[in-house]
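We modelled the chain as a single entity of 613 amino acids. Its sequence is:
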Amino acid sequence: MCGFAGFTGYLENGKDVLTDMMNKIIHRGPDSAGQYIDNKAYMGFRRLSIIDLDNGSQPMFNENKKIVITFNGEIYNYQDLRKELIEKGHTFANSSDTEVLIHAYEEYGEDMLNKLRGMFAFVIWDSEKETLFGARDFFGIKPFYYTIVDGNIIYGSEIKSILAHPAYKKEVNDVALENYLTFQYSVLPETFFKGVYKLMPGHCFTFHNGQINIKRYWEPTFEADENKSLDDFVQEIDDAMHDSVEHHKISDVEVGSFLSSGVDSSYVAATFNGDKTFTVGFDYEKYNEIDYAKALSEKIQIDNYSKLVSSEEYWAAIPKIQYHMDEPLADPAAIALYFVSQTAAKHVKVSMSGEGADEFFGGYNIYKEPLDTAGYRKLPKGLRKGLANVAQAIPFKFKGKNFLIRGSKDIEERFIGNAFMFNEKERAKILKNPTGKYDHKELTKPFYDKVKDKDDITKMQYIDINFWLIGDILLKADKMSMAHSLEVRVPFLDREVFDVARTIPTKYKVNKSNTKYAMRMAAHKYLPDMVAEKKKLGFPVPIRIWLKDDKYYNMIKKAFTSEAAEKYFNTKELVKYLDDHKEGKADNSRKIWTVYMFLVWYNDFFGDSEYAA
């Protein structure tokens, strides 16, 4: 795990600019640095040494120095690919996975990508063709950002590097803000910096003569195999997970594992059978998973290192965390992930984690909604719409209100991913200058169109893989771990694991009493019932409680009435959300948090924060 930055086009002070770009991401690779400069391409790299500690430095070249690469990630099948390439006549100078990528590019070109198993983002400069080739892994585990200015590309593992290039003039992207207020993260290729984009998962590009050509080389599909039994799938899941964990263990440094009280991280930790696990908790019993994690660690005979995070520590860290995030992310669990990464980094350079299990195996509680509403949805649509209108007109909450409203809508209308903060009307009310043209359904429609023939639960999984997993889950996993120079590996997000998950019928994933049923059955072999059957918490955070405390209420109110807030929002509406929450009239905690994270981020990158970039 490392970080890279670079650009094309000659700059008189290009070496200094490249150095500045690299220094912005020193946290991603504190062990060493390297540069390649030929006045047409500038490539910089920061290294966190994990495999081939002595010889894995980058940028790395082929034999004749005509092809050069910078690469962030790990290729878990690199040893098999290395043997294959040696048989085809390639000569290797070291034992790193990076060199395997160079020779794979020479041998297969773009077709190399579908041979890879791992997490990756990389760029290859072919000096003879004067062409830059880049790619991002299948699920978006590793980040890749870019912008094109005056016919040249500027790119990096983090947006901070791009901001250090003098040709890019930073500006807030209003499109991203509107979508963020609904999704709680920036959506699809857009970022919060105008003109800066994400290279999407499963995509690659070539850049030549000032033109970029982006194409999708892989995309996830679901095709249920109805001929296999539940026991068959349980065994396949377990076999795939053991194989994935074995590949993810490959390292020349010690590997640990994150551990919450839930089944995902517990299954990984039990399968991994390493020496160290890491956990965080908070000063509220409901939000403290430390005791669970310690008990499980004792059962599977692994040392557990934990940290109890105080509210003061949590809130004090927010500006630094939003700086590391590059963009606003309104997921309170990101801060918990920051602290568990901090704890792990004191002991190891690499830690495994449980991301991806919910999306692949059907783990979110909201996936039960199609089952819960199935009977109600047999009523005529007009009747359901009428009942929903009546329910919405009643000003107070009552049991079943949300059921009536959501049950009246088709899945394509009501589900945009695991988070839904402000709807269009609410968004228009709080924004000072709403455009009204960014309908969330327009963003999700192309993805729903690809799974028209699937059941609603599979559709929800597909949307989450293409939106929530990329925009929230993997963003925070990468940025919060790399803030502490820690590599996080995610064995669930493996192509071989997905090849099993994509074939599991919905009846073996979600039922009215439980989620990711088949995966829990696989985990049962190693975990006690209290863990294997425990409902999902992740790293839970007591935000709704803290926001009623005068100290944090006043902190948020100050932000909601600030100059930055006045620029973008109707501040009276913001304060009303805050007051209603404090007075117990509504649980507005997530909406409050969504706006607050934007304002903290804005101060970090456009204001007077100590982290101002």
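As a brief sanity check on the tokenised model: The two ends are 24 Å apart (CA to CA). The chain has a mean pLDDT of 92.
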